Amino acid sequence: MTERTGFGSKLGVILATAGSAVGLGNVWRFPYMAGENGGAVFIMIYLACVLLLGIPCMISEFIVGRHGQSNTARAYSKLSGGSPWKLVGYMGVLTGFLITGYYAVVTGWCLQYIWASFIGQLQGTPDYFKTYFAELSSDPVRPVLWTFAMLGIAYLIIEHGVRDGIEKASKMMMPTLFILLLIIVVASCMLPNAGKGIEFLFKPDMSKMTGDVFLSALGQSFYSLSIAMGCLCTYASYFSRYTNLTTSATQIAIIDSVVAILAGLMIFPAAFSVGVNPDSGPSLIFITLPNVFSQAFAAIPIVGYFVSLLFFVLLSLAGLTSLMSLHEVSTAFFQEEFTLSRKKAALIVTISTAIIGAFCSLSLGATDNLVFGGKALFDWFDFITGQIFLPVVGFLTCIFIGWFVPHKVVREEFTNWGTLRSEWYARLFHIYLFLVKYICPMAILFIFLHQFGLLK
Ligand code: PHE
User: Residue 23: CB within 6 Å of ligand 1?
Assistant: First the structure.
């Protein structure tokens, strides 16, 4: 077998994997959920979900990936001794592959918005922003080209390999993203009445806490940490045998959560300052926020101009690092399973996901032929991957690690072959195993049943 190059440094591991985790989900869903569902109380519950369920699931994927030292499909196959568990790995790869195309569409819109901000098009009345987005997303040409552009950028990075491509790019993009985020947070918090937005985000309100909210927090934490999409497993296959899986997972989860909370501090103070009700999803970032920024900084338009521009650069970076991790899942698969050069494998993935992306984009208004059962193809991809594959792969991974893989193997990976020796790791391992065996699968099962209305 040819020698695989992995990440070259600890920082590279953390920034690349955090790059996968920090994505559009941090900006367009978390803040809104927190504000609507009990503020500080929701944030506490979310963090508890991350700590007790997200981190253990992440470690489990790391274990599969690092043990396998290969793409996700083969990693599951190796660890299972070729038994049907390997199908979970194949499903992980398929999930990553299917998401790549439609995630590229959304990140492509971000590129169009960078351009629009740059040429000063993002100014106008609230209705203008609505029409602008509706026209863009239903346009048959522009968003498709932007999707191709985004995938093209991902290709150029991925093609350079793990260390010279993904790691290097992440080391530049993640700190930039963080700085941009801080700049916009400061600008937003300095606006008049910003306090109201901060209150909306953090004011504890127990009355909003229902079972529903708990399950949504759980679902959001999994999506936000990129669990069950093959990404974590693939990246972990590039970790070295010295990478401490527990500390890395914890650091990545902390970065992801801090970015999510900062995103709230970027959005709400500005929104409340101009009295606009924030929402979530694409309409938040492509309609509401451009409007908020243009109104909030109307007194000093140049600041508004830069805030809007920097915001879309930030979103594109967040989206790109996630897109790279998704792209890498399939690239590693094609490269290793069909013994192709990295370039060829990456090209196959880029072209095939570009085709999927183009169809997803066209389904949003350019043609009616891509709407099935009242749902656009784009939404079908979102639904099937996010609501079906994600919980299934996550659940089966926990069962696999908790019940099937010999504990000796799991312990070896967890403690880096006994080199992490202290009492603390022995205890931590038991807690981890307990969570992965019982608590995580049960929690995922609840989310799954809940979202299909089978559990109230
Ligand atoms: N975690 C990313 C986000 O928060 C989304 C994502 C999921 C990216 C799965 C890669 C893989 O937006």
Answer: yes
Name the residue type at position 455: L
| Burial of residue 356, with CB atoms counted within 10 A of its CB: 0-12 exposed, 13-18 middle, 19 or more buried | buried
| CA dist., res. 48 & res. 392, Å (int) | 22
Distance 100 CA to ligand 1 centre (A): 10
| pLDDT above 60: residue 1 | no
Q: How far is CA 99 from CA 233, 322, 330, 378, 385, in A?
A: 16, 11, 11, 10, 7
DSSP structure class, residue 279: -
Q: Which amino acid is at 196?
A: K
At 372 the three-state DSSP class reads strand
Phi, psi of 124 (to 5 degrees): 160, -165
261 vs 283: CA distance, rounded Å:
19
Residue 454: DSSP 8-state: S
Q: Is 229 near ligand 1, meaning CB less than 6 Å away? A: yes
C-beta of 221 in contact with ligand 1 (< 6 A): no
CA of 96 to the centre of ligand 1 (A): 10
Find the 320 Cα to ligand 1 centroid distance in Å. Answer: 10
Instruction: Name the residue with the closest Cα to ligand 1, atom 8.
Output: 322
In this prediction, residues 423-446 reach a mean pLDDT of 95
User: How far is CA 352 from each of CA 62, 100, 144, rounded to the nearest angstrom?
Assistant: 27, 10, 14
**Do residues 262 and 182 touch, judged by C-beta distance below 8 A?**
yes
Nearest ligand 1 atom, CA 21: 1
Q: Mind listing the pLDDT tens digit for each residue in 337-365?
A: 999 999 999 999 999 999 999 999 999 98
**Neighbour count for residue 190 (Cβ, 10 Å):** 12
Give, for ligand 1, the residue of 20, 32, 381 to mutate: max count of ligand atoms closer than 8 Å to Cβ: 20
Residue 281: strand, helix, or coil: coil
pLDDT reported for residue 5: 87
How far is residue 376's CA from residue 14's CA, in Å, rounded to a whole number?
A: 36
* Span from the CA of 381 to the centroid of ligand 1 (angstroms): 14
Is the pTM here over 0.90, yes or no? yes
Ligand 1 center to 274 CA (angstroms): 30
Kindly report the protein residue whose alpha carbon is nearest to atom 7 of ligand 1. 226
